[in-house]
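Friendly challenge for the regulars: who can give me the structure tokens for this chain first? No prize, just bragging rights.
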Amino acid sequence: MTDAKRAWQRMLSGRRLDLLDPSPLDIELEDIAHGLARVARWNGQTSGDAAFSVAQHSLLVDDIAGRLKPGLSPRDRLCAVLHDAAEYVIGDLITPFKSAVGPDYKILEKRLMTAIRLRFGLPARESEDLRSLIKRADRVAAYLEATQLAGFSPREARRLFGHSTRFDDIALTPWPPGKAKRLFLERCSSHAGGL
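First reply, four minutes later:
Bragging rights claimed.
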């Protein structure tokens, strides 16, 4: 017997995640780390021997958020690391494609992110201040990735993402998936340990 309209994904942990109605009980950090370490930013259109993964991007955003607002709580730092966690299942769609897909994509992403946050004892939604901080850190990361790895000129990247010379000391080299997964797990465990 087959599922006529299968809307679930089997994870390596053995969990079966319903994409239409995700449960926090079906979310495992190991699955998130494994998936994000293999999802390429910029649709893989980056330089280097490995793809620049969403896992590595997530750690970069956490680092930048910590520099933008020193003294962030472990809870807020965990929110920063997990800001793109839904992409372990739905992939990293580039912004122009998200616009073309329309609002249905955003609905699925929001449901999944809510389940992920609840799974790790975080509020279902971040505060507006934290959301704004993470978005700012995400844009700084996008500028660095665009100019260092994705072939954008500084002028083009500045127009799309803005630019702050405060972060020009960050040099990016894509990591292999195993390293990205391990460091993602370590960072999440470190922040979760401070809750």
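The two ends are 45 Å apart (CA to CA). The beta strands are 8-10, 16-18. Your move, everyone else.
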